[in-house]
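Sanity check

After download, print the first record. It should look like this:
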Amino acid sequence: PATHNLNLASKPMDYFIVAIAITLFTIYLKRKYLFYRKQTVIRNEQLQRVAITLVDQNEQLQKQREEIKAINEDLEGMIIDHTNGIEIKNKELAEYAFINAHKLRGPLSRIMGLTSLMENDPDNYHPSEVLQIKNLAKEMDNVVRKINDVLN
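Expected structure tokens:
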């Protein structure tokens, strides 16, 4: 029969060593837990600061977007007003040119009529002078016609 020698004095020492190992391991785990918990708190604080910064930036962007929208609306109004003003000025200019073209047309027609009469009376009027007056009247007539063409 095999006899087992149990050393009763070594058992408490074995338990003591195991207890110390478990205690040290528990302390190690607690320190690791506290370290990661502290890191988590630091990261959460960083994330909160980033979130606050992002909220501030978002508010600034919203304000800028509203300002840009207001500026665009003002510009659209200014463009519409300016366009209306240009249209009114163009109408006034067209009316002015039309009136002036017609005011020129009457005296020009009379000049052209007089040159025809002068051509028929070569004794009193020199033909080259009459031709010169007639050519000038035709040039003026062409200018008036161009004005009318532009207006129409």
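If your output differs, re-run the checksum step. Summary of this record's structure: The mean pLDDT is 87.
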